[in-house]
Amino acid sequence: MAELRELTGGRGPDVCIEAVGMEAHSPGVHGAYDQVKQQLRLQTDRPSAVREAIMACRKGGSVFVLGVFAAAVDKFPLGAMMNKGLTVRGAQVHGQRFMPRILEHMARGELTTEHLATHVMPLEQAPRGYQMFKDKEDGCVRAVFEP
Ligand SMILES: NC(=O)c1ccc[n+]([C@@H]2O[C@H](COP(=O)([O-])OP(=O)(O)OC[C@H]3O[C@@H](n4cnc5c(N)ncnc54)[C@H](O)[C@@H]3O)[C@@H](O)[C@H]2O)c1
Question: What is the pTM of this model?
Fold first, then answer.
């Protein structure tokens, strides 16, 4: 946060994009608070990156929540959001809408995706592939299954 302030002349960024989601890690008291509350099923998600984005954003700025959240969170800085006059938005990507455009870019060779398919395996190994993806085992970015 201090670095963002310094980079923006003490004002904070115009736009902050939260791209972490419900499994955020965070050191310190807030991190421990989130872990305990989540494990006791008293809150569903760990929103530390959302809190940081709201606190870091400049007055009148925008915060976009791209990371996925399931339900309710505690210690949402509603006061800072309101008093700074922030615009807060979130959304799931409209995959179907952008697919044709992305495929066109791929066909022209402007976008390459091969490097993302780190683990190509037979369909029968799908449970193992998903587990590797979840645990980020062996540098797994995406497991691709061949029928
Ligand atoms: N809205 C959408 O349409 C959409 C699309 C794709 C992915 N997502 C979501 O975006 C999120 C990120 O996806 P991903 O594939 O990049 O996950 P990822 O696990 O690869 O990346 C998350 C990153 O966040 C970092 N991180 C953890 N805690 C942090 C914190 N407190 N502050 C800053 N960084 C922190 C981790 O070190 C990691 O590098 C997930 O919640 C995913 O479900 C949303």
Answer: 0.83
